[in-house]
Design brief:
This protein has 224 residues and is mainly α. The protein has a domain of 130 residues: Orthogonal Bundle (Cytochrome Bc1 Complex, Chain D, domain 2), CATH 1.10.760.10. It contains 8 helices and 2 strands. A two-stranded antiparallel sheet has the order 1-2. Strand 1 and strand 2 form a beta hairpin. Helix 3 packs across helix 7 and helix 6 packs across helix 7. The longest helix is centred in the N-terminal third of the chain and has 26 residues.
């Protein structure tokens, strides 16, 4: 066989093996480069993220309210008071039968509030929790926000926009979150969420109490 043909066949053989070698090497090594996707499926798509704006609608919200009277699949006949804080399509104004108001319930609510809520809202619900204070320090740093820190201050539970809210709305907010506040429905059992909501109402009442809220036997010691 002529030498030129032998060389040619060797080169063709090496070129044929080269793609397999490259593929094997890439599969064996980690890479920070973005993978090449021929079929994108639903990895990349035009969409609106949670709590984002959409100018298509008059209220500017991308997330739409459910149609009035809509019942989620599997929830027909469900106790919407206990599960969602809703009674007859309106926010519940009282605790459900499963969680009657007792000193034990408020004590449980205080304990759970201190664990899950106080970090941002503060132990008294003033919006001055440790995380909130630290984040505000980073944002208002004299040299500018540290590492591009962006923070939306935690709401005071005694704010005029919060205190009128019925207990069912507070429960719903704990469950599903609101604006930048995350949902706690997966971390906190339903009964404990009601306990926290009841304790929030107690916190609010503590800042707006009057003499009639104090039991008569205890009023004499107040010096009023």
């Amino acid at each position: 066989m002529p030498r030129i043909i032998t060389y040619t066949l060797c080169i063709i053989g090496l070129l044929a093996i080269l793609p397999l070698v490259i593929i094997a090497r890439n599969r064996a090594e980690a890479s920070t480069a973005r993978p090449i996707q021929i079929i994108l499926d639903m990895d990349l798509q035009t969409k609106f993220k949670t709590q984002s704006r959409n100018e298509l609608f008059a209220d500017g919200r991308a997330m739409r309210q459910p149609v009035t009277g809509t019942v989620a699949r599997g929830e027909a006949g469900a106790d919407t008071h206990f599960a969602n804080g809703v009674v007859g399509g309106n926010w519940a104004t009282a605790l459900p039968a499963q969680t009657p108001l007792t000193p034990a319930l408020l004590a449980r609510g205080q304990e759970r509030f201190n664990i899950y809520c106080s970090a941002c809202h503060g132990y008294a619900g003033m919006g001055d929790g440790m995380i909130n204070r630290r984040a505000l320090e980073l944002v208002t740093n004299a040299a500018g926000p540290v590492d591009g820190t962006v923070w939306v201050a935690a709401k005071s539970l005694h704010d005029a926009t919060v205190t009128p809210q019925p207990i069912g709305q507070i429960f719903n907010t704990i469950t599903y979150g609101i604006r930048n506040m995350a949902a706690y429905g997966t971390q906190i059992p339903v009964a404990d969420r009601w306990a926290i909501a009841a304790y929030v109402i107690a916190l609010q009442r503590s800042q707006n109490a009057n003499l009639q809220d104090v039991p008569p036997p205890s009023r004499a010691g107040l010096g009023l």
